[in-house]
Amino acid sequence: MDYSVVLLLCGFSFLAGFVDAIIGGGGLIQTPAMLFTLPQYPIPTLIGSTKIPSLCGSLMGAFQYGRRVAVAGRFIAPMMAIAFGASWLGSWTLTRVPNSFMKPFALVILIAVFIYTLTKKEFGQVTRQSVPAHQQRIRMWAMGACIGFYDGFFGPGTGSFLVLGFIALIGFDFLKASAHAKLVNAATNLASVLFFVKEGTILYAVAIPMAVANLCGAFFGARLAILKGNQFIRIFFLLVITATIIRFGWDLVG
Fold first, then answer.
1. What keywords is this UniProt entry annotated with (predicted)?
2. Which of 79, 137, 149, 186 could form a disulfide linkage to 58, CB 3.0–4.6 angstroms apart?
3. Can you say how many angstroms the Cα of residue 218 is from the centroid of all Cα atoms in its chain?
4. How many domains does the chain have?
C-alpha cells in the first residue's frame, strides 16, 4: 500500500472522527474517501475496512462524553446489546438482499428532520423530564433495534438518527443525546467489525492507521462539543444533515 494513500485516508479519517464525535455523520467523509481512493478493491472490503476506524472513534467519543455527561446506564446497556444484535442481523441481511431502496427513504426522513430542527429553535436545547421511565426504556430499546439494523444494513447518518431519536423520543438535550448516541454507535460498529472480520473483508494495512487518526479526531471533536454546548451541537447537527441530504440527493440524481 502506497504511504501517500494511507496518509491521505488518515486525514479523511481524522476529519470523520472529529465530525462524528460531535453529532454523527463521519461516514459521509470516511466512506466516500475509501471508495474514491481505492476503487480497485471490492466495495464490501472497503466498507468493512472503515468499520474499525469508526469503532475506535465511537469508543473515544463515548469515553470523553461519559466523563462529563450523566448516562442512563440501566437503560443504555440493554439498548446497546439490542443494537449490537440488530446491526449484526443488518450486515448479514446486506449480504443477501440489495439496499438500494434505502437511499430515497433516508433522504425523505432527513429533509423532514432538517426542517423540524431548523424551525424549532428550542429543539434539543434542554433536557425534558416528561417521558416516564418505563416509556424511556421501551423507546430506547425499540430505537436500538431499528437504528441498529439500519446501521448494519445501510449505515450513513446513523449517528444523526440516534441523536434525533434521543432528543425527540427520550427528551434529552443535544449534549446528552450525543453522549448516549456514541455508546450505541460503538455497539453497532463493534457488531459490524466482528461480522466483516469473520467474512475476511478488511484491509488492515489501511484500517489500523485510519483507526488511530479517527480516534484522535474523535478526541478533539468530543472535547469541543462538551466545551461549546447545545447551541454549537445544534448548528453542527444542521450542517451534517444538510451534507447528508446533498450527498444522498446527488447519488440519486447521478
1. Cell membrane, Membrane, Transmembrane, Transmembrane helix, Transport
2. 186
3. 12
4. 1
